[in-house]
């Protein structure tokens, strides 16, 4: 049953990210059961998980709806991530261990392999790898409060959906950012690590805006 629930979660999530289920769309258990040919139990579990991630909003007596993110919501998430994660990268440069640097390099190498293989699930795989990388950086910062706040933002639908809007060029650039950030952290260069992380998240903001709203960020 757990496997079925996971399958339903991945399918509904990918359809939301791809726009198959538009923002504000009403998702009923019966509809999803018919579309995916599954029972209600895995559908309910998947909807609970998607609600926790912010991809779905549940309203009493009305049901589940695809979350609607305004331009202002998106700007706020990226701006907060920029402030928090750039600080995290700077602290990581000062506090990281050799083992943590090795983990970051391993994550970057894995991301490059995922992008090169380009399997049918590669954007999902890239999303998981990207989240792991950013959380590794935050962990190396040794700041539990910073980690907790930034982790919450890492699980918003805005952050989770970024890679679904990335072109091959965007993906290659993201991998290079991860590699450069890792090098700066390994070299204990706080200024460069902070600057690179800020630029990395800023570029993601532009790509998300272009994919979600059909235009670049006004500051681009």
Automatic annotation (TrEMBL):
GO molecular function, one term: DNA binding
Any Pfam family matching the protein: GntR
Assigned keywords, A-Z: DNA-binding, Transcription, Transcription regulation
HTH gntR-type domain span: 2-69
Protein name: GntR family transcriptional regulator
Native source species: Rhodococcus opacus (Nocardia opaca)
Lineage, highest ranks first: Bacteria, Bacillati, Actinomycetota, Actinomycetes, Mycobacteriales
């Amino acid at each position: 049953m757990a496997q079925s629930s996971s399958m339903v979660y991945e399918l509904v999530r990918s359809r939301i990210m791809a726009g198959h289920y538009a923002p504000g769309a009403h998702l009923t258990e019966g509809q999803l059961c018919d579309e995916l040919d599954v029972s209600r139990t895995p559908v309910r579990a998947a909807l609970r998980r998607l609600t926790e991630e912010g991809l779905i909003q549940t309203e009493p007596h009305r049901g589940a709806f695809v979350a609607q993110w305004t331009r202002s919501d998106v700007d706020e998430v990226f701006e907060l991530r920029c402030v928090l994660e750039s600080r995290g990268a700077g602290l990581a440069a000062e506090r990281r261990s050799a083992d943590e640097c090795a983990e970051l390099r391993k994550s970057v190498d894995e991301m490059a392999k995922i992008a090169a293989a380009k399997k049918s699930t590669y954007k999902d795989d890239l999303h998981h790898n990207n989240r792991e990388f950013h959380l590794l950086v935050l962990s190396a910062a040794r700041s539990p409060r910073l980690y907790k706040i930034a982790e919450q933002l890492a699980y918003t639908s805005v952050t989770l959906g970024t890679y679904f809007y990335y072109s091959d060029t965007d993906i290659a650039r993201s991998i290079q950012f991860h590699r450069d950030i890792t090098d700066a952290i390994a070299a204990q260069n706080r200024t460069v690590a902070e600057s690179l992380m800020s630029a990395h998240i800023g570029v993601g903001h532009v790509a998300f805006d272009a994919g979600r709203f059909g235009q670049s960020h006004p500051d681009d």
